[in-house]
């Protein structure tokens, strides 16, 4: 009973993916993990091309007011936020070529959304960066369990990892007493 995280990582990947796991806990009521942030998984920016609008939405929120978003950039030497609205819109510009993450939070949930940000000098350079670097994403990073002993499968979208090396993806649980993880390449089974 409780909450923890499960993280998937791969040697040489430019990012990792974190899953938020909740097991029959009162924190479910406080956190309401059915409410989550949705957006694109990857944002590409051409350096010096101006600001690009990025939109996030809040899912399963019963209150009609969607205000409560905050956006931040992990490495502001690569990309910067030039403006943002608490209603889910941010304007982001590329500063120099490289990779960073856009972190999106909302007051209705403790679960943040991380978006891979790729900045290049040209669209061609961005495409080359995406083709030549290893990265991972997931459609939904929230896992809910009603009962101890239940099992759920989660899946990563992997990019540029050869299929024969998927077994090198490392899955770890922050707290094995709440949820353990059994890995099988780009998929894993989380056990409450």
What class would the helix/strand composition place it in?
A: mainly beta
> What is the count of DSSP helices, taking H or I runs of 4+ residues?
2
Oligomer: single chain
Low-confidence stretches: none
- In round numbers, the mean pLDDT is 91
Give the spatial strand order of the biggest sheet: 13-2-1-16
Taken as a percent bin, the fraction of beta residues is over 45%
Shape: flat
The rounded distance between the terminal residues' Cα atoms is 8 Å
Helix content: under 10%
Gyration radius, in Å: 17 Å
Order of helices and strands: EEHEEEEEEEEEHEEEEEEE
> What's the total number of strands?
18
Query: The biggest beta sheet, please?
Result: 4 strands, mixed
Report on this structure.
The protein has 192 residues and is mainly beta. It has two helices and 18 strands. The protein has a four-stranded mixed β-sheet with strand order 13-2-1-16, with no helix packed on it. Strand 8 (79-85) and strand 9 (89-94) form a beta hairpin. The longest helix has 10 residues, at 123-132. It is flat and about 50 Å long. It starts with a strand and ends with a strand. The relative contact order is 0.24.
């Amino acid at each position: 009973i409780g909450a923890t995280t499960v993280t998937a990582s791969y040697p040489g990947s430019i990012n990792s993916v974190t899953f938020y796991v909740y097991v029959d806990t009162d924190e479910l009521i406080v956190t309401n993990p059915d409410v989550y942030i949705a957006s694109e998984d990857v944002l590409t920016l051409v350096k010096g091309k101006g600001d690009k609008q990025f939109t996030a939405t809040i899912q399963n929120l019963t209150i009609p007011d969607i205000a409560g978003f905050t956006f931040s950039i992990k490495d502001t030497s690569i990309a910067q936020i030039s403006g943002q609205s608490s209603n889910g819109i941010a304007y982001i510009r590329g500063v120099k070529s490289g990779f960073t993450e856009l972190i999106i939070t909302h007051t209705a949930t403790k679960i943040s959304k991380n978006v891979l940000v790729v900045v290049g000098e040209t669209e061609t350079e961005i495409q080359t960066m995406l083709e030549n670097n290893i990265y991972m994403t997931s459609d939904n990073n929230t896992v809910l369990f009603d009962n101890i002993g239940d099992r759920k499968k989660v899946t990563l979208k992997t990019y540029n990892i050869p299929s024969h090396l998927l077994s090198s993806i490392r899955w770890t649980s922050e707290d094995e007493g709440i949820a353990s993880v059994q890995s099988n390449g780009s998929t894993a089974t989380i056990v409450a």
